[in-house]
Every structure is written in structure tokens, then in C-alpha cells.
Amino acid sequence: MGFIHILNGGLQTSLQGRPIAGKRHLALPGAGPADPLSLALANWCVGNAPDAPGLEITLSAASFRFNVSAKIAICGAATSADIDARAVATQRSHYLPAGAALHVHVARQGVRSYLTVAGGFETTELLGGTSSYLPARIGGAILRAGSAIAFSGGNDAEERRVPEAYRLTMTGEIGLHAVAGPEFERLADHARHALFDEPFLVGNRANRIGCELAGPEMMAQPGGIASAAVFPGSVQAPPSGKPYLLGVDAQTTGGYPRIAQVIRADRHSIGQLRPGMRVRFLRTDPQRAREILRRKLLLWRALMPELRL
Hints:
Blueprint: E1 2-8, E2 13-16, H1 36-46, E3 54-58, E4 62-66, E5 70-76, E6 80-83, E7 86-89, E8 93-96, E9 101-104, E10 112-117, E11 148-151, E12 173-180, H2 189-197, E13 200-206, E14 210-214, E15 228-229, E16 234-236, E17 244-246, E18 253-254, E19 258-262, E20 278-283, H3 286-300
Parallel strand pairs: 12-20
Antiparallel strand pairs: 1-4, 1-11, 2-3, 3-10, 4-9, 5-8, 5-10, 6-7, 6-9, 12-19, 13-14, 13-20, 14-17, 15-18, 16-17, 16-19
């Protein structure tokens, strides 16, 4: 067993793995990685299961020291890192000698990067998951300088690079497939068309709970709705007229009209939305949404057979 010591946790670093399961009726969301596909790729590089816990690093640089030798990988938003000031590439595995310092650089596009270690981090399963729900400090808290996390270590000698065909590209614009929400018809005609025809910009109010979008005004008919279920990917229309796209740490119910729902196959991309990024909602229907998910899993499971989205 070894330890990774946090030298600089950056803006927000937390341990995220398998989401909390089946507790939404208790007002507890699943939490988990904001971008589970990037975490799965980092785990693949070091020979772990796709949902093995990893460190989720948000936007800024972060630094760590390992007290024993380890095999690590970084995937997601960060495109560069260094080990003891020696530049190394992301999207592949690396070996660190005992005492080495790892510095993950600032994300230039996207938001979240994932650091994994062969053998996995030592965590206690809680409520069916191995993740941190930060708003309630369940399963863990934000990792600050001076804290340390144990890891099991592994003997896998195979070096792995993410194949080019599976590398996720972070850009300043993204399209998210979405279906009309239960209260979609409460929007005015022009707003219903604009929701799926015009772009939005991610505002500065953005975190794991969700992000506010600037663009066409989404004013629903006056009057709230009875509190109803919401999920990651739900798009709400608050009285401000600025739609709000929910993320992995969002509440389980809400009283604002639900005007759209990002489909399951695209929800991992929500975790990489950063302020100023352009977002378009691509209208689809439930049947097509299921087909998109089926095809996406067929593609990705050729690399990672146990992957779930």
C-alpha cells in the first residue's frame, strides 16, 4: 500500500468513482464523476475497472507526491503534466518512482481531469457507491494541501496509450442531444424553436450542480409546478429566463418547468462545460436516444467491455 500526498489541490479536487445507487427517493443524488467517460479512460490506462475511484481535478493545476512507486494516468481536460519537472503526455500510463512529484497542468479546454493509479485508491463503499457527494460531505470532501489518500498499487507492467480513435477532444463548442421536457409546451412558440435552433453560452455560474446558460430567453408560462423529479441533464426554466442545465450533484426534485432533458449517451459531456463555451441542444426523441446510446456503448465497449454511461 502507498499514499498520494496532496501538495496543491487546486480549485477543487475530490475522489470520484462508482455513483451512489438507488437513493434518489431519499433526496440523495448519485454524484460520481462529472465526466465518467474520461475517468473510465484513465482507469483503462492503468488496468482498473472503468468506475474505479480516481481524483477529479477541476480547471486549475494540481500537484501530488507519491511515497512509493506507482503507475498512473491522466485523462480528460488536461493536455499536459510533468513528473519531477519532466514533461509527460496525458492519455497514457506512466511510472513514477517513490518520492516523485506529479504536477497536472491547467485545463485549457474543458473543465475536469482524472488521475488514476494502478490497483485503485482505498475507499469505503457507502450507499452503494465509492464517490464523494460534496454538498453534503458524504463519502469524502474537497481534498486540500496536506491530505493524503491510500492506494493499493498494482503489478501490471503493460504500458497503455488511449488509441487515437478513442481520444476525447475538448473544444469551445458542443452539441448535446436532448428530448423535449415535460413542461416544454409551457414555453412560447418562439422560445420552443429557439431552444433547439439557437446556441447558448455557459455562464460563470457553473459547478458540479449545474450551469446557467445565456442566450435566447426561456420564459415559461407564469406559475410554478408541483415539485417533480429532475436528473442530471435536466434543463429547467427559472423565472430569470436563463435556462439551467443540471449536473451530477444536482438536487433530485425541483419546482421549475423542465423544458428539455439531455440524453443519457451525452451526459458525460456536461462535466466538461466551462464558462464561455457554446452549447447547442440537438432535438431527438426517446427512440432515437436509445439507439444513440446503444451505438455509443457498442463503440466504447470494444475498448472497455465493462463501461456504463
